[in-house]
Design brief:
Its main location: nucleus. This protein has 728 residues and is mainly alpha-helical. The chain has four domains: 2-144, no CATH class; 153-337; 355-382 and 423-537; 538-726, Orthogonal Bundle (Tetracycline Repressor, domain 2), CATH 1.10.357. The protein has helices spanning 2-91, 95-113, 122-148, 162-166, 179-190, 194-215, 246-265, 279-303, 315-330, 340-346, 348-368, 430-447, 451-475, 477-482, 484-504, 527-553, 565-588, 595-618, 625-641, 652-660, 662-665, 669-680, 683-690, 696-700, 703-713, 718-726, and strands at residues 149-152, 169-172, 219-226, 229-236, 268-270, 276-278, 375-378, 408-409, 415-416, 426-429. The strands form four sheets. The chain has a four-stranded antiparallel β-sheet. A two-stranded antiparallel sheet has the order 5-6. Helix 6 packs parallel to helix 8, helix 7 runs antiparallel to helix 8 and helix 17 (565-588) packs antiparallel against helix 18. The N and C termini lie far apart (178 Å). 30% of the residues are buried. Mean pLDDT is 81; it is low at 389-413.
Length: 728
Amino acid sequence: EVCTMINKKYGEFLPSMESAEHLVAQVEGLASNIDLLKAAIENEVQQDLSTAVAEFTELKQQLERDTLILSVLKKLQEFDAAIQESSSPLLKEQYLTAAQQLEQARSNLRSLESRRGFELKVLKVLSRELMVQTQNIIYHLGEEWQKLVVWKLPPSKGSSSLEAAVLSELHLHTVPLQDEDIAVLQALAVLGELHYKLKPFGQLLLQYILKPLILHSSLEPVPEEQPHVFILRFRSQGLAMDEASPMEVFAKIKLVFEVLHKCLLNVPLEQPGGGRVTLAELLGELIWEELSDCLIHNCLVNSIPTNSSKLEQYKEVIKSTEEFEKALKQMQFLKKDTTALLRYARNVSSHFANKKCQDVIMAARSLMTSEIHNTVKITPDSRTALLELPDPASGVHSPSSPLDDGTVAVGSESRLSPFTLGLPSCRISCSVQQLLELAYHTLQEATTSTDVCCVQLFDCVRNIFQLFCEVVPTYHRENLQKLPQLAAIHHNNCMYISHHLLTLGHQFRYRSTSMLSDGAATFVDLVPGFRRLGTECFLAQMRVQKGEILERLSSARNFSNMDDEKNYRAAKKAIKQVLHQLRRLGLVWQDVLPVNVYCKAMGTLLNTALAEIVTRIAALEDISAGYADRLYSLCGIMAEEGPQVFTPLLEEDKNKKYQEEVPVYVKKWMTFKQLMIILQANLQEIVDQWADGKGPLAEEFSAAEVRSLIRALFQNTERRAAALAKIK
């Protein structure tokens, strides 16, 4: 059974093996054929294929060169044709056709020049030919433009004066506008030359027409239409003292643009880059910025109100500006919705504040640099520049009424005099009074303005006072140093300003709903600076006067050796000079300084002189009887004439009161009087005056000083020794 199975399996396997052997034989034959074919390809076909590819590449490159040459030749042919075709229309004055052909030629030339690696020397020649032809047509178009737009200008060019404007004329030979005229304009646009024609036209329009109409209110445009020409002339209505309103200026300029739009600017033109545009748009782009600047700075600026009550009326100007711009947009002169001109007009509140502040500062500076010596008398009951204060207790924000008896109610019972905290009588500069009035009026203006404007005006008033502290001491420095009267007036000015600054902000607290009403608006912080400014100036003048007094007394030769006639005359002259100086000061400060300041100042200077005399005499070591008499005589001059320098008031009889009060203002007066007593007293009288250190002499001199004077006045005797022993 096993053998049978093996034989069966062998019988089944044998055909498969024979089939596989046959298949192997076929594969081996096929591989042999492939090897033969491969060898044939490598030896024959590959070589032929490489040759074919090389030939194809060469033919392709040749085709590309031929195509490029053909393209270049075609462009050259088109360029030549365009140049040729532009000559004939030019001769027939068909400028638009000629321009279009030249533009086509320029396009072809650009295409040729843009090809890299392919440069022809002929291109330079062609470029020159195109430039010549282009300049030729531009020249003819320029002549045609000059026929369309004719300017007749005055001999003296370059001026926007009234005289030049009256002599200027613009002739537009475009009535009606012919197709030939439009063709000229379109040809200029095609060649890109329209800008170069409109730019000088716009500048002449600004210089001889538009700007003169803005600057000269008496100038009016006079349009005149004739057959085939429209003439724009100007006439002056005489000398106009007032500046023209913006409405009038806008109307004149609008009339000019309407004429230009009707006769010239409404022509639609094709742009070289594509799209349509009118001459009005092109001209607007060239001149609008300069025109609007001129309108702002020479028209709208001048129309800004100087008073907040007139701001409401300015709405007419804003409306007129809007209508003016709307008209220009309808004529296509403007494209923007809102220009700088309209923005300026609408921002009137800010401009009003800026202009008001500028005017106020300029007026204030003018007052600060005016003469100080022009004065006005201020008294406690002066009401100059003061506004009525409202009554805070009433709860009603309205001015309170003064009581019939001239007093002001405080609470329910107490009453204050109207002169309480009042400024004493003195003289101040008229300019300072006007400066305070300016400040009050500006703050009054602020109370009726918008919040932003109110803040600006309040800051402006603060700037006025800060500017005063910088300008006045600098500008008037030399006079303030040299002239005592001006120093006194400046002192009064500063005190007058500081007096008002105490209540300046408070006075407007109930007059506004703006920032002034919240108590933040105050000037109190400026008060110490003004007081210091006035005080330092006057004290500097006092130091100068003290120096002069001491210098004059230095020529008295220390009051020594008065037995010598020369020394006596020198001392007497020095005292006379000091008294003369004091009298002169008394007169220049008379009715200028407040009485209390006057008396203190004169008392201080007289005290300086007396203190120096006392010091010099007390230092003497030997005084004979005759010497003492002469010293007494000199001191008598001072004692008699010194009080007479106190003349604070113009009325002579009223000055006696202050002359009698000299001891109040002159600290060394009683010392000086005691010195005079010593010079004429005997030893017993001096001892009596001393009274064991309790007498009037002891109040003015020390024991050492009295003993020194006794030794100088009396000879060394037992009586002198006894007297000296009692002075302790």
